[in-house]
Write a structure and sequence with these properties.
Layout lengths: L6 E7 L3 H12 L4 E4 L15 E3 L4 H5 L6 H11 L6 H19 L8 E2 L9 E3 L2 H14 L3 E3 L4 E7 L6 E7 L4 E10 L8 H7 L7 E2 L8 H7 L5 E2 L7 E5 L23 E3 L13 H8 L7 E6 H4 L11 H6 L3 E4 L2 H8 L3 H15 L27 E10 L5 E3 L5 E3 L5 E7 L4 E2 L10 H22 L1
Parallel strand pairs: 1-2, 1-9, 2-6, 9-19, 10-16, 17-20
Antiparallel strand pairs: 3-5, 4-5, 7-8, 8-9, 11-17, 12-16, 13-14, 14-16, 15-16, 18-19
Length: about 475
């Protein structure tokens, strides 16, 4: 292949949700686009996630009489992040999320369900099969003229010029192949949950968390931009996710067993091996994940009753309690004492814990951990009393590392002096600044789409200038 043939307007590294959205946007604007994927199969962490998008003001919310708005969404994002987010990025998300919802629906994707999850003051998780999303986006990318290559491991970035005149001009693959990018390179390589060296360097408190991100998430994009002086932010806020079952699925159930289960936002309590609660179950599952890693054996047990089980929702949601039961991950018993025995936790203490929790639900005494809602002020906690009873042993999984490359509102990567590195963009999990101290459920997939499209728009403009 000649040097001229190996030139494109835009090169996108990483073919998950964010990368596909960037590639589609650029191609639809008339650019020649190359989408590169390191592994054999596109999708990355998106393929493994719960498929939730945090949108506000949608038809499905209106049908369910859920009052929501871009303003409330923006407020929730800032409060979840303890106001350590980049406010400009959060505002862009709030402004563009409904347009993104319509953009995805125009491709034939339908959001028919909405549910409550971590750090949301109203239900706004719009869940959809993530594999269906990926297959739809991939087909749309190819139809738009995107060139796609799997097994294409990008090792570093090409640059020209020195000092203030330096710009990114392409990529170098691991096999030595050089590929040019006239408008720019979009990094959408995901995080570093599968890179023990980076976890140890940036998030040593999570060294014992279970790695659960995409198998290609080894920090490649972060490393190659870092080598050019990219600013790295939010590294100290990396958190694991509570709800990773510790048991192995029953034989034959490996492919259908939930990877994450969150029953606490429907009314479950969380106890440790001693049968005692250790956290306010209404807070973010990232915060719960931190507290879980402080418990004996790094374990937390979600305990709930039939009232919660009746709210089970099938995959891809994290509320597939019935699926977890069928896969042998959840234990069932007719009494709390029998459940405690099955889980291997202190039965007397569990009974005392549940009795105290129920009294708090009745208003007879304050909750020991200040729980007054199901999640972030929404919904009233309910008693754990209706048998049969269920329990799930969980730990904290490192599903994602929401931190990394500092970007501006055009998704341009900034250097340590807060100046754009010309020709370099980032979106998705590898971008920092958006989430702040913790994470609101459902904001990752939509964020990748929003800033991927913005990156593409700016890169295409550069290519055609």
């Amino acid at each position: 292949m000649t040097q001229q043939e190996n030139q494109h307007d835009v090169v996108v590294i990483g073919a998950g949700m964010a990368g596909h959205c960037a590639a589609i946007e650029a191609a639809r604007r008339g650019a020649s686009v190359l989408l590169l994927e390191k592994t054999a199969l596109y999708g990355g962490s998106t393929r493994m996630c719960g498929g939730a998008f945090a949108f506000a003001g949608t038809e499905v919310q209106r049908r369910n009489e859920i009052p929501d708005s871009a303003q409330l969404l923006e407020q929730d994002l800032l409060e979840a992040g303890k106001h350590r987010n980049d406010k400009a990025l959060v505002h862009v998300y709030a402004e563009r999320q409904y347009e993104t919802y319509e953009w995805l629906q125009a491709m034939g994707l339908r959001f028919d369900k909405v549910s409550l999850s971590g750090s949301q003051s109203v239900p706004r998780n719009h869940s959809i099969d993530p594999v269906l999303v990926l297959e739809t986006l991939h087909a749309q990318a190819l139809a738009a003229g995107v060139a796609y290559r799997a097994g294409a491991h990008v090792e570093r970035l090409l640059t020209e010029g020195e000092g203030d005149a330096r710009r990114v001009t392409g990529v170098v693959l691991k096999n030595g192949e050089r590929i040019g990018a006239r408008g720019g390179v979009v990094i959408a390589t995901g995080g570093f949950s599968r890179a023990p060296d980076l976890v140890e360097r940036f998030a040593p408190h999570l060294r014992e968390a279970r790695p659960m991100g995409g198998h290609g998430n080894t920090g490649d994009g972060l490393r190659m931009a870092w080598a050019l002086g990219a600013d790295l932010i939010d590294l100290g806020y990396v958190k694991g996710t509570f709800g990773a079952p510790v048991a192995e699925p029953a034989p034959g159930k490996e492919e259908v067993a939930p990877r994450l289960v969150s029953a606490m936002y429907r009314g479950a309590i969380i106890v440790n091996r001693a049968g005692r609660r250790f956290v306010n179950e209404s807070v973010s599952y990232k915060t719960i994940g931190d507290r879980c890693l402080e418990q004996p054996e790094l374990l937390g047990f979600q305990v709930f009753d039939q009232r919660v089980m009746d709210q089970s929702s099938p995959l891809p949601t994290v509320a597939d309690y019935q699926g977890a039961l069928d896969a042998g991950l959840v234990k069932q018993a007719d009494s709390l004492e029998a459940l405690a025995t099955a889980l291997g936790i202190d039965a007397d203490a569990l009974r005392e814990t549940v009795d105290a929790y129920n009294r708090a639900c009745d208003g007879a005494e304050p909750d020991a951990f200040g729980r007054t809602s199901l999640s972030t002020g929404y919904g009233k906690p309910t008693r754990v009393e209706t048998g049969p009873f269920y329990g799930l042993a969980c730990t904290t999984g490192l599903t994602s590392t929401y931190c990394g490359l500092h970007i501006d509102v055009d998704a341009r990567v900034l250097d340590v002096y807060k100046r754009p590195i010309e020709g370099l963009y980032a979106t998705g999990e590898v971008m920092g600044g958006f989430h702040g101290e913790t994470y609101m459920s459902g904001s990752s997939l939509a964020k990748g789409c929003i800033f991927g499209r913005l990156a593409a728009q700016h890169a295409v403009a550069r290519a055609t200038a």
